[in-house]
Design brief:
By secondary structure, this protein is α/β, with parallel strands linked by helices. It has two domains: 247 residues, Aspartate Aminotransferase, domain 2, CATH 3.40.640.10; 100 residues, Alpha-Beta Complex (Aspartate Aminotransferase, domain 1), CATH 3.90.1150.10. The protein contains ten helices and 15 strands. The mean pLDDT is 97. The structure holds 4'-deoxy-4'-aminopyridoxal-5'-phosphate.
Length: 375
């Protein structure tokens, strides 16, 4: 078997042991004579997997009792709408911090919901540069740059901008802003579960699974119980967080196979040493990659300021688009895929999620050094 060295941005590489475990029990799950996909979501065999997956999220992040964990569908994109539906009541306002394209999308969707419910949304800070439609983003806000409205219903951040490679909290200078008593809502889709974070600081955090925690089809939501209990009346039941919280994320049929895979991935993560181990690995990966970029600063150029450089999505440019195309093509010949930057920004993007090993990064770094030498 020739597994690809997979730097895809999402869906992305999954840990081989998690996949092999699924392969092993695909047609006969836990001796039940059928796959986990063929089980009723109300049966005890599935329920055990479901509860194990939820418990692993709680355990890995040491989630306090004040917060609930939910498995939802509809992608992180659905959360862009569900957050304001549940947290923005008539006459209230919410703040958005924009550090890239996904935050822009979350803001646009919140504007639509705000118009429907009679609330409003505001940009509390944006690091976008340029007047065009496609702004450049090269950093998170500096300390004191985010002016949170003291009456805001919440302030929304994107902890890691997958396209622009801009991440909060990687260095002390790029820390999450202090929002005081205002709940922080955070899109953690592309940097969930690579490091510990203080869950108590967040009103709500959500993450599409397909980067660090499993396949697509499932979104992990961590929410403060009192916050979601106070949602405005009149929201369709399926879009209320409370519905899912009250039903252990089994209000309707969940994506059972995706949940099962999340269980396998998180069980692997725990067995490797949990988030302390994972963070150390990920920081080593990022150091080696940015080290190679900076060592050839006349050839590779990372547009992101050092304090905001993402540990999960490393973006950089080469001297020309022709060289970038050649870089991607030659890497592919060496079994390395997924290196093309997002179509909106171009360049190269290396997604270094949890399942991307240090050995894969070393292979890529060797390729980069050789590419510079021979270009
Ligand atoms: N937020 C971020 C930070 C993302 O990277 C993505 C997907 N790349 C999304 C939201 C949208 O996720 P989905 O496609 O699951 O709706």
């Amino acid at each position: 078997m020739n597994r690809a060295i997979n730097f895809n941005a999402g869906p992305a590489a999954l840990p081989l042991p998690a996949l092999e475990r699924a392969a092993h029990e695909l047609v006969d799950f836990a001796g039940t004579g059928m796959s986990v996909m063929e089980h009723s979501h109300r049966g005890k065999d599935y329920e055990k997997v479901h509860n194990e997956a939820l418990a692993l999220v709680r355990e890995l992040l040491a989630i306090p009792d004040s917060h609930t964990v939910l498995f939802l569908q509809g992608g992180a994109s659905q959360q862009f709408a569900m957050v304001p539906m549940n947290l923005l009541a008539r006459g209230r306002s919410a703040d958005y911090v924009l550090t890239g394209a996904w935050g822009e999308k979350a803001f646009a969707e919140a504007q639509t919901v705000a118009a429907l419910v009679g609330g409003s949304v505001r940009v509390a800070a944006s690091t976008g540069e340029g007047d065009g439609k496609e702004k450049a983003y090269r950093r998170v806000p500096r300390a004191g740059e985010v002016k949170v409205d003291p009456y805001a219903a919440y302030v929304h951040l994107t902890s890691n901008e997958t396209i622009h490679g801009v991440e909060f909290g990687v260095t002390p200078e790029g820390a999450f802003p202090d929002a005081g008593k205002i709940p922080i809502v955070c899109d953690m889709s592309s940097d969930f579960l690579w490091r510990k974070f203080d869950v108590a600081r967040f009103g709500l955090a959500y993450a599409g699974a397909q980067k660090n925690v499993g396949p697509s089809g499932i979104v992990v939501v961590i929410a403060r119980k009192d916050l979601i209990a106070a949602a405005p009346a009149g929201i369709p039941k399926i879009f209320q967080y409370k519905t899912h919280a009250d039903n252990n994320s089994l209000y309707n049929t969940p994506p059972t196979f995706s949940v099962y895979m999340v269980r396998n991935v998180l069980d692997w993560l725990k067995s490797q040493g949990g988030l302390a181990w994972m963070e150390a690995e990920n920081r080593k990966k990022a150091e080696r990659l940015y080290g190679a970029i900076d060592a050839h600063a006349d050839f590779f150029r990372c547009p992101v300021e050092k304090a905001s450089r993402s540990v999960m999505n490393v973006v950089f440019r080469l001297p020309s688009e022709a060289l970038e195309e050649r870089f991607v093509a030659e890497a592919k010949k060496q079994n390395m895929i997924g290196l093309k930057g997002h179509r909106s920004v171009g360049g190269i993007r290396v997604s270094t999620y949890n399942a991307v090993s240090l050995a894969w990064i070393d292979t890529l770094v060797a390729f980069m050094n050789e590419f510079v030498r021979t270009a």
